[in-house]
Amino acid sequence: MKSVRAAFRLEEMVVPHLRQVEGYVPVEPPEALAAALGLSLESLVKVDANENPYGPSPKALEALARYQRYHIYPDPFQRRVRQALASYTGFGPEWLLAGAGSDELIDLLARLFVGPGDRVIDLAPTFGMYSVVARVCGGEVVEVARDDEFQVSLESVARSLDSRVKVIFLTNPNNPSGTLTPMETVKGLIETECLVVVDEAYFEFCDMTCAGLLREHRNLVVLRTCSKWMGLAGLRLGYGIMDPALVQRLMAIKNPYNVNAAAEVALVASLEDTDVLQSRVAAIVRERERLHQGLKGLPGVRVWPSWANFVLCRFPPGEAVRMKETLARLGIIVRYFDRPRLRDCLRFSVGRPEDNDRLLEALRKLL
Ligand SMILES: Cc1ncc(COP(=O)(O)O)c(C=O)c1O
Hints:
Elements: H1 10-13, H2 30-37, E1 45-47, H3 58-66, H4 79-89, E2 96-99, H5 102-113, E3 119-122, H6 129-136, E4 140-143, H7 154-160, E5 165-171, H8 183-190, E6 195-199, E7 220-225, E8 238-241, H9 244-253, H10 261-270, H11 274-296, E9 302-303, E10 310-314, H12 319-329, E11 332-334, E12 345-349, H13 353-366
């Protein structure tokens, strides 16, 4: 057939705004880390990704093993998932949409609202996905810096506002600082009439939510995840609560079978096992406070109070990378962010008591 161009040149074929996108920096799987470190998988203390150290609920594991219909496509309208979430959240199914992790919902929201020339406000430092998806959609990321306590200043946001700003992402409690944004500030953001996406991935560890504002404010979306408190990170399940008209819009652009059958089965069973899951959340919250106290007692270390299942620490200048590498050699995997204001920090997910003991002991020796 006749060629329509001189030669296929990949770089020229890629749409201009995607030629140099910086992707999200994810964590490595533990198997790869164990192999690289020459350690056994069982000996690793993996506290780098805010996963649940207790795993899925027993009922979820039983239901997954019992289920026989993995060869059938899941429900594109997520009926059972949305019904189960309706009982849990108190919002009708028409207010709910599930995704392959809340990451997928962040992506879908950006695809629906952000195009070339549009702006997205990122309350930095924060979770890295918002800026990635905004740029993938051709949008421009406006970083509004949090203050030294990682709090959001409405005055700073106001200075960055113009008619091109369409979406404001707020993680609450924030990742990686663990700090909480007061409800008055959330309300201030909603008053901008931009789409305000409040990512409550860590809601169950703080019990604070702005979901009560959803019925009066159509420009608010609340995101949650089953990765953290439910221990289902590997199954990829998150959900959003939002105006039913917005649910319909997102439903129309999502992949038809975005929530897989295993995630559906595990969710329904997990929500029948909330006593077990909540007691694990309580254990993590207790351990968070113990970890916080232990870290606070280390020389030269600054710790921020956390409302999530992790704790952020700042070490003396230049020490954080060395610490991360030394801890890794000891089989303790922690999270480091090569980003402004975080280069002297490490984030530790709250593990089981024995994991936290190992971490604290190692840090005491190193410092
Ligand atoms: C604030 C925040 N939002 C979303 C996610 C992604 O969650 P999911 O596993 O549901 O995609 C994370 C994961 O660490 C997170 O910290």
